[in-house]
Design goal:
Helices cover about 25% and strands about 25% of the residues. With about 290 residues, the protein is an alpha+beta fold. The protein folds into 2 domains: about 40 residues; about 240 residues, q2cbj1_9rhob like domain (Jelly Rolls), CATH 2.60.120.620. The radius of gyration is 28 Å and the shape is elongated. It binds 2-acetamido-2-deoxy-beta-D-glucopyranose.
């Protein structure tokens, strides 16, 4: 008697779990059919993210955000802005503090020399009319402040500190400029140590009243859609431009993710019209760069 009751309970249990299982299967089918006909859809964030070449919406978002929040202590509010995908270019706002900018300028000031460009045959520096600024190099890891900045650059680019050349400090006075050029090398000599230049971090150490923009004349997209269009110089309107602002850092890539050279990374330093431009450049290599 007892035995019989037990088996009846067991069979009732198993039939109810079969029912639950069947209903689950049926429910899954219904969901799949609804998804198939597009009646249901899985929410996706890609619907509201800006399109690749829609510079307008990307830039507007940033403006809203910068107005929303107050400046904080030290380096102030930091945020990254996507400037372009062709070339891949990003601005890290308030990357350096005012003190760091002043430190770099004062360190470099006594050593400034007329800028040169690298000769692709001999690897030696030569005088050039395409580049009329003056500059100097600061050795990698030379002191605590520079090591801090170099670590921050490594974090921002995901490229190790050891792949970086020494920081270059540049000074452009009124009328001085750098004609359109690539940062990558077209020769064997310059790539012997460290390989190709893969990315550049350009840090603005001073504010400039007029001119001195970094312009990408070969960038894809509608240049005139940037919200700062009306503030650009004539030269700045020849492409996608970034206006120098003290402490901001511009990162752009000379190589595509497949390691081929990216001709859309062509860029120039527009002539300074009013004020004084100080900037610092960090070139990152594909491999370790030995100092
Ligand atoms: C580029 O953007 C500007 C400003 O938003 C707009 O007036 C112009 O029509 C756009 N041009 C093209 C070709 O989309």
């Amino acid at each position: 008697m007892v035995k019989q009751r037990n088996s009846r309970v067991a069979s009732r249990k198993s039939s109810s779990s079969t029912l639950v299982f069947t209903m689950l299967i049926m429910f899954t089918f219904v969901i799949l059919i609804l998804l198939g006909f597009g009646i249901l859809s899985i929410p996706s964030s890609s619907n509201d993210s800006p399109k690749a070449h829609d510079l307008n919406s990307i830039a507007r978002k940033t403006i809203e955000r910068s107005e929303e929040e107050e400046e904080e202590e030290g380096r102030g509010e930091q945020w990254v802005e996507v400037i372009s995908w062709e070339p891949r270019a990003f601005v890290y706002h308030n990357f350096l503090s005012k003190e760091e900018c002043e430190y770099l300028i004062n360190l470099a000031k006594p050593h400034m020399q007329k800028s040169t460009v690298v000769d692709s045959e001999t690897g030696k520096s030569t005088d050039s009319r395409v580049r009329t600024s003056s500059g100097t190099f600061l050795q990698r890891g030379r002191d605590k402040i520079i090591r801090d900045i170099e670590k921050r650059i490594a974090d921002f680019t995901f490229i190790p500190v050891e792949h970086g050349e020494g920081l270059q400090i540049l000074h452009y006075e009124v009328g001085q400029k750098y004609e359109p050029h690539f940062d990558y090398f077209m020769d064997e000599f310059n790539t012997r140590n460290g390989g190709q230049r893969i990315a550049t971090v350009l840090m603005y150490l001073s504010d400039i009243e007029e001119g001195g923009e970094t312009v990408f004349p070969a960038a894809k997209g509608n240049f005139s859609a940037v919200p700062w269009w009306d503030e650009l110089s004539e030269c700045g309107k020849n492409g996608l431009s970034v206006k120098p602002k003290m402490g901001d850092a511009l990162l752009f890539w000379s190589m595509k993710p497949d390691a081929s050279l990216d001709p859309s990374s062509l860029h120039a330093g527009c002539p300074v019209i009013k004020g004084n431009k100080w900037s610092s450049t960090k070139w990152m290599r594909v491999n370790e760069y030995k100092v």
